[in-house]
UniProtKB/TrEMBL annotation:
Name this protein carries in UniProt: Uncharacterized protein
Taxonomy, superkingdom: Bacteria
Keywords recorded for this protein, A-Z: Membrane, Transmembrane, Transmembrane helix
Keyword Transmembrane on entry: yes
Originating organism: Candidatus Merdicola faecigallinarum
């Protein structure tokens, strides 16, 4: 019977470890990658909007050669402030699911005006007007692509709102299940309940610590490349913050669990000695 109780106890200790891991990771994620304000802060910190502005200007220049138009046609058609507002709208959509609109009418009008001003002394044919219209459409699409990065945007917009919406309920559920598991461990062996909880905390902390060390050794976080340098820097910062938080929580968890284990065993063996002394007397 004692062997069976011990096996059940170990199973529930591991179950509690999984619950602790989930609660720790979900809390860290909710404060970092799943937090809209945190992401917007990272964008501001890394001067992301200015970097995107220059990326867009550079991508526009690639259209000059084939078109035969002058580079000046792109002067003033888009501002860093407009890019910032569009990106904030997109980030808000990714995190909340709210509708957004990228206003490109003014940009199109400015581009159209610049093109025809550059061709002021040239008699533009109807066929060329159609080509200009297609060119303007390509520039608008390029701007939208540079701002949204649609291949990633379409994935994130379908995932993040659902996770953010369901996470609080999952955290509450796991928390309640954790309390029930602790109650079961108390029933199994009330004298060693603190030891059982400490074992779970120690195991989860060690898992986080070794996972952090493994990721840091296998992935050069500072050299991650996704889309462009500006976006890569943001991803690198987010991953670094998550791993740093894991490291801090793991170290604190290890210290607390070791202290609790020492205290638990001290009181357990002291009680055993007192019981033994009472029997001998």
């Amino acid at each position: 019977m004692k062997v069976f109780r011990k096996i059940v106890q170990v199973i529930f200790i591991w179950f509690l470890m999984i619950i602790i891991l989930f609660l720790i990771c979900s809390h860290i994620f909710s404060k970092t990658i799943l937090n809209q304000d945190y992401i917007l802060g990272q964008l501001e910190k890394e001067n992301y909007y200015n970097n995107v502005y220059h990326e867009i200007q550079s991508s526009f220049e690639g259209y000059i050669g084939p078109s035969g138009l002058d580079e000046s046609i792109f002067d003033g058609i888009v501002s860093e402030e407009q890019i910032k507002q569009d990106i904030i709208q997109i980030v808000n959509h990714i995190y909340t699911g709210e509708d957004y609109t990228i206003q490109t009418e003014e940009m199109r009008e400015k581009l159209n005006r610049n093109i025809y001003e550059s061709l002021l002394n040239y008699n533009v044919s109807e066929e060329e007007k159609v080509s200009i219209s297609h060119f303007e459409e390509e520039i608008i699409k390029e701007y939208q692509e540079q701002v949204t990065h649609s291949e990633y945007f379409e994935i994130l917009e379908g995932i993040f709102p659902k996770i953010i919406q369901k996470l609080p309920a999952l955290q509450l559920t796991f928390g309640l299940v954790g309390i029930i598991v602790i109650g079961i461990l108390f029933v199994i062996n009330k004298k060693m309940i603190l030891c059982s909880i400490s074992d779970s905390l120690l195991a989860s902390s060690l898992f986080l610590l070794f996972t952090k060390l493994w990721i840091s050794s296998e992935i050069e976080i500072a050299n991650i490349t996704i889309l462009n340098d500006a976006f890569s820097k943001i991803i690198s910062n987010v991953l670094k913050d998550i791993l740093d938080n894991w490291n801090i929580v793991a170290i604190v968890g290890i210290i607390i669990s070791i202290l609790c284990l020492i205290g638990s065993y001290f009181f357990f063996y002291r009680d055993k000695k007192q019981i033994k002394a009472t029997k001998n007397s």
